[in-house]
Design brief:
Elements (H helix, E strand, L loop, with lengths): L4 H10 L19 E4 L4 H12 L5 E5 L10 E4 L5 H11 L3 E4 L7 H6 L1 H21 L4 E5 L28 H21 L3 E6 L1 E3 L12 H16 L3 H10 L6 H4 L5 H10 L2 E3 L4 E2 L4 E2 L1 H4 L4 E6 L5 E2 L1 E3 H14 L29 E4 L5 E2 H12 L4 E5 L8 E2 L4 H5 L8 H14 L1
Parallel strand pairs: 1-2, 1-4, 2-3, 4-5, 5-6, 6-14, 7-13, 11-16, 12-17
Antiparallel strand pairs: 8-11, 9-10, 12-15
Length: about 425
Amino acid sequence: MLLGMTEVKDLAQNDKRQWKFEMIENKMNKGSKIAVLGVSGLVGSAIVRKLLERGYNNIIGTYKNRKPDFKGIQMLQVDLTSQEQTQKFFETVKPEYVFLAAAKVGGILANNTYKAEFIYENMAIALNVIHSAYKYGVKKLLNLGSSCIYPKHAPQPMKEEYLLTAPLEPTNEPYAIAKIAAIKLCRYYNEQYGTNFLSVMPTNLYGPFDNFNLETSHVLPALIRKFHLAKLLEEGDIEGIKRDFQKYPIGFGLDEKLDLSDQSSILQILTHLGIKFSNPVTNLEHRTLNIELQTRNKVTVTLWGAGKAYREFLHVDDLADACVFLMENIDAWSLSPSHLKSNSEHRTLNFEPLLPDYLINVGTGEDLTIDELAYTIKNIVGFRGDINYDTSKPDGTPRKLLDVTNIKRLGWSYKIGLIDGIKSVYEWYRES
C-alpha cells in the first residue's frame, strides 16, 4: 500500500522521528530520458511495464541476447560486460536516469555450478555501468541487488547494517560478492564524486517472464513448472508435456537428449527431473511405460533439500513499483551524512538509523518454509500426487527474511499477496 505524504508525516510523528519531504533535486518527469538495463529479464521487464503504466514516454531498454516484445520504448542490444559497448551506449544515448537490472542470475544449482561466470559477469556489469553513469553525468542510478548479500547466519529479519558482518552462504558467494561490490561502488562514487546512486536489495522474486529453465531457475518458478509437468503426467497428457518441453528449455543438458517422438524418452527426462510414478509398470513388449495403466498409479515429485529452509517472496510488479517510487522520491544524500552533498540543504528527510551504504531492503517482511511453499503451489496447480525430499541436496541459507522497516518509513509497502501472486503467474505460465 502506498502512503500519502500526510500519512507518512503522521507515521513519523508517531514513531518520534523527524520527517521532512521536499522537492527532490533533479526530479524525474514523464519526458525524462530513462534507461532500463536488462529489459529481457524478470525485473527489467517489470520496471518497463510500471514506467509505461505511470505515463513515462522516453524509455530506452537494453538487452544482451533475447529482444523482448515491448511497444512504446526504444530497444538497443548492448553487452554490458563489455566496457567499450557500455561506454558507447552512455556516450551516445546520454540517459538521465538509469535502472540497473541487468545481471546473470540463477538458483542454488546454477550459482554453485557456474561460479566464475557469476562473479565475472556481474562484476563486469557493475564496474562498466556505474563508472559510465558517473562519467557521462547520469542524474540518478538505481542499482538492483539481491538479499543473498547478507551473511548466511545473519540475525532475522536482516537489516541493511548486517552487510559484511559475517561469512556468506557458500553456494552463492560469487554472485553475492559481485553484488556487494556494486553496492560499494555506488557508495564510494557518491562520497567521492557526489553522484546520486541508490541500491535496492529485493527479497526472492517471482512473476511473469520468469526463468523456468529447471537448471538455472529460482525455487518458485521451478516448483510451478515441476508441479505443472507432474499434473500433466498424472492426467496422461503426453501432448501437454511435449508442448511444455518445446516452450521452455529444460536444462541439465536434457534438451539435446530429448526425443519427442519417443514416449520412453519423455518419461526418462521427467524421471531425471524428479517427476515419476511411484510404482512404474513396464510394458515388456514395447519396452515403454503404459500411460493408461500408470494413470491409476500415484505420481511423485522429488524436491531438493529437506524443505525446512524459510524464504520470503515478493511479486516482481511490487518490486518495480518500489523502484519507481524510490527513483521519484528519494535522493542518495538524504540517506547518509557521508555523502559529498549531504548537508542541511540537500537532506530531504531524517531518520535513524541512517543508511551509509545507500542500501534499502524491499520485501514483504513475511516468510514461509519451502515445504509450505511447495504444498501451496501443488494445490494451486491441482497436482494430486506426493512430494518427496532428497536430503542429500543442499537447502541453502536456513532463513532469508528482510527487515523492511526503512522502506515502510519512506512510504512504500507491498500490495500483491503470495497466493494471489502465484495464481496469476501460473495462469500466465499456462497461457503464454
